[in-house]
Specification:
The protein is of the alpha/beta class. It is built from 20 helices and 24 strands.
Length: 544
């Protein structure tokens, strides 16, 4: 048969049922599973060119797929100072002071992962960090990647001395005298400073991206739904694949921003299906709001600070028309919608697009909503009714909110809405397909950590803390499906991905034990023994 890879002494786990299959081995040829059986009969298929791996009782699952990642932008962002461990202003100032001490004059300081809860009851503004950033050009990205904090020197270099008007719901936050506070909300505002900051070379960016993707493969990931195609992302993916250095199967959704005209939408439609063997453009990413933590979400009622009252698209009906155009062309959409008003509008737009038709191309389009952080009961059932996929990031709930609702997100929403946080279980029980992801670099990408968070809903750094909304925790099988069968369905690939069956793609993850019987609090530490993409080993543990 000419098998390229054979895996033996394994337990094969069916994510559809949670049962272990009777077979103990599988064979791969030309990137596909070609045989399942016992060790002896599968070993008999080997020839001199076959790689045979004995996984010593390891559990094979279909390759784990992150439903929402940003590989290129994340690789660039995470080269700066990691601020995610800072829990208060004192620890943040101390970390920044040490970094400033290593800088040359006029050298920029970049940071990422800044939690607004660090500021406590104080506003998020550069003045709180002025003692350590005096004269230093600094740009610190908040954990949600929708906002940044720029130092006074960085604002000066960017020529920002007051408010600006943008085509999207972006803002240079200013005080009562119209002076910038340093807080920049959404991409259009952040980019004003980013444009004057030094940038890494293309070779540095490519090498960093390759390194990150290797780390992802080592964590058990075989694929990801990449939710942007910004800059030269697609060219970088092409270069890595040509060099044999692309260890994940990537489905990429370019952005469609407010103000995109018909020609721009037509270009996005024409771009669909382009790519290589391991990456391709499949879908379009849109934004209906920002974030609750920044006051830029779109809520049906203002948050407790009177914010989060408008859509990201100044004219929400323009968004509705774009969705209808893409739907009619058979292009799936993935819309960032965090607040209840934003989620409702996305579902309304999909419902209208389906009702109006637009041709046979739209009959089987699977649209998605990304994030869905707080929604009321009447919204839940609409996902299944409209065939809209719910794409969730449970570790955002685990790591950026608190069970006692003393965090910024919960305080802004108030008790009633904060109690509806990340309703993964309710969406699943209502019949929706739930896809899980990390939104890396917002949260860590290891898929076992994402799966674990969906089950325990506790802070990753301290699993002794109480869970936030334990009634919304997923069962072990549901969590596994969120990274296997769910992403396959969302991508329209359920007939060739997400199962261990002959003819399916040989994208495989091998774990040291059964993820369904491993306790949720221990799951993130379960060793990944082997990762296989398209029949090629991308990670192999030393134990093998």
């Amino acid at each position: 048969m000419g098998c390229s890879l054979i895996i033996v002494s394994a337990r094969l786990l069916d994510p559809a049922t949670g049962a272990l299959l009777p077979q103990t081995a599988l064979a791969v040829s030309a990137g596909r599973i070609v045989a399942l059986g016992d060790d002896r009969e599968i070993r008999d298929l080997a020839d001199r060119s076959t790689t045979v791996v004995d996984v010593k009782g390891g559990v094979i699952v279909p390759g784990l797929v992150d439903g929402h990642i940003h590989p290129v932008s994340g690789a660039e962002l995470t080269q700066g100072l990691d601020l995610s461990a800072c829990t208060d202003l004192a620890s943040l100032r101390e970390l920044l002071a040490r970094a400033v001490g290593r800088l040359d004059r006029e050298e920029w300081l970049f940071g990422w992962g800044l939690d607004p809860n660090v500021f406590g009851d104080r506003p998020v503004e550069a003045a709180a960090l002025a003692p350590v950033l005096d004269g230093v050009p600094a740009l610190l990205q908040l954990f949600d990647a929708h906002s940044s904090l720029a130092s006074a020197r960085a604002l000066e270099l960017a020529g920002i001395d007051g408010p600006r008007t943008f085509e999207q719901a972006a803002e240079i936050v200013c005080d009562e005298q119209g002076r910038p506070t340093g807080l920049l909300l959404e991409d259009a505002a952040c980019e004003l400073v980013e444009r004057v900051a030094p940038q890494p070379s293309r070779a540095e960016r490519r090498d960093r991206l390759a390194a990150v993707l290797r780390e992802m493969a080592a964590s058990g990931l075989t694929g990801g739904h990449a939710m942007d195609a910004n800059g030269d992302s697609l060219a970088l993916y092409a270069e890595l694949e040509a060099a044999g250095d692309l260890p994940l199967r990537l489905r990429v959704a370019p952005w469609c921003q407010p103000g995109t005209d018909e020609a721009g939408v037509a270009a996005l439609i024409a771009q669909q299906g382009t790519g290589g063997d391991l990456w391709s453009v499949r879908g379009v990413k849109l934004f209906m709001d920002g974030t609750i933590d920044n006051g830029t979400a779109w809520l049906e009622h203002p948050d407790r600070l009177g914010e989060s009252v408008q859509a990201f698209w100044p004219d929400p009906e323009a968004y509705t028309r774009v969705v209808a155009r893409l739907h009619g062309a058979g292009v799936p959409t993935a819309t960032h919608a965090i607040g209840d008003a934003a989620v409702r509008h996305v579902l309304d737009a999909v419902e209208k697009a389906r009702a109006e038709g637009g041709g046979a191309a739209g009959d089987h389009v699977r649209h998605r909503v990304e994030h869905i952080e707080s929604v009321p009961d009447d919204t839940l059932r609409r996902f299944a009714a409209l065939g809209v996929v719910a794409s969730m990031q449970p570790t955002h709930c685990c790591d950026f909110t608190r069970a006692d609702h003393t965090d910024n997100w919960s305080r802004r929403l108030g008790e009633e809405r904060a109690s509806r946080a990340w309703r993964c279980r309710d969406l699943r029980d209502s019949g929706a397909t739930v896809v899980l992801g990390s939104d890396w670099p917002i949260a860590s990408f290891p898929p076992l950590g994402v799966m674990a968070g969906a089950r325990h809903r506790r802070p990753t750094r301290d699993l002794t803390q109480p869970p936030h909304g334990p009634d919304q925790a997923l069962e072990a099988l549901d969590a596994l499906q969120g990274l296997t069968t769910g992403p396959a369905f969302a991508a329209g690939q359920e007939h060739q991905e997400g199962r261990l069956a002959v003819g399916y793609r040989a994208d495989l993850t091998v774990l040291a034990d059964n993820p369904l019987t491993t306790p949720a609090t221990a799951l993130a530490d379960l060793p990944v023994l082997l990762t296989v993409l398209d029949g090629r080993i991308t990670h192999r543990a030393e134990a093998l």
